[in-house]
Amino acid sequence: MTLTNIADTIKLADGNKIPGFGFGTYLISDQESMDTTIKTAWDEGYRLFDTAMLYRNEDILGETLHRLEIPRQELYLTSKVAEEVQGYDQTLKSVEGSLKRLQTDYLDLLLIHWPVREHFFDTWRAFEQLKADGKVKSIGVSNYTAAHLDLLATKAKEMPVVDQVEYHPYLNQLALLDYNKQHNIVTEAWSPLGRRAVLGDPMIAKIGKHHDKSVAQVILRWELQHGILPIPKSQHPERIVENTKVFDFTLDEDEMSTIDLLNKYQRTGNEPEIVYETGKQY
Ligand SMILES: NC(=O)c1ccc[n+]([C@@H]2O[C@H](COP(=O)([O-])OP(=O)(O)OC[C@H]3O[C@@H](n4cnc5c(N)ncnc54)[C@H](OP(=O)(O)O)[C@@H]3O)[C@@H](O)[C@H]2O)c1
């Protein structure tokens, strides 16, 4: 069922709820920008804020949230464990660092940022431990393919409730989306706007014109109607607002399938299988 407003939540397989629409913070790197950006996003109704150790902005995000005096239970905080600190002990230790930087004693969602062959099962064992210890409410993965999830299932005590992957009209991963739905895993879209690469698409612009919506709004709507949780990032107040105005129109079946057909297998980020093999981004 497609969400009807930005405050709607989705029930995860572990029983917890996650906002159905979120905000990305990659490349927001100074305190002033973080303060103004997050304040705008909060006022517009965004509740899920996505960061990662790798972004080196957990500390400024933590400081912003502290300054805004947002009650912790109203926030949904996601962070991710980087490749170089994977493994059982290292993961436990690195999450302590994230919690400290974010000025909180728990994360709502912790993700393995990329699959890494060498530490594949040990990192997940640490995630299960962190959840049992109450340091994180929900555990998930990022950039996992169906094959990675099948492999994880051979030893996991519990399975990820979220898989955050690159997803936009030029990299639609419909097969992975089907797999995740069948396994009760929520698919989060990172680079939901293709980091702007899709914003010049003439076909989406034409569909947008019909609804009096921008290309960005049509793309986000297409993701929502597919049951995907998008986490667009912007540092421009007018775009932060624009990206939330996606709950007042509907794409029909023809429009949905027209956008589905724009797939070019075009990535803005790394190929997960190579990161899995080499243990690092390239
Ligand atoms: N798990 C992973 O491996 C992974 C990888 C990458 C990203 N992520 C997460 O996903 C989030 C989103 O992905 P992303 O930041 O890579 O890409 P994105 O959200 O697809 O695109 C962000 C870019 O689009 C621009 N933009 C946003 N809204 C716009 C609008 N309405 N009109 C025109 N331009 C617009 C932004 O510019 P301005 O900021 O200048 O407005 C920025 O340059 C990240 O911030 C991060 O939290 C996760």
UniProtKB/TrEMBL annotation:
The keyword Ribonucleoprotein does not apply. The active site is at Y55 (proton donor). Residues 28-263 form the NADP-dependent oxidoreductase domain. Keywords: NADP, Oxidoreductase. PROSITE patterns: ALDOKETO_REDUCTASE_1 (PS00798), ALDOKETO_REDUCTASE_2 (PS00062). Pfam families: Aldo_ket_red. InterPro entries: AKR, Aldo/ket_reductase_CS, NAD(P)_OxRdtase_dom_sf, NADP_OxRdtase_dom. The record marks K80 as: Lowers pKa of active site Tyr. One of its GO terms (molecular function) is oxidoreductase activity, acting on the CH-OH group of donors, NAD or NADP as acceptor. Substrate binds at H113. Belongs to the aldo/keto reductase family. This is Aldo keto reductase. It comes from Levilactobacillus parabrevis ATCC 53295.
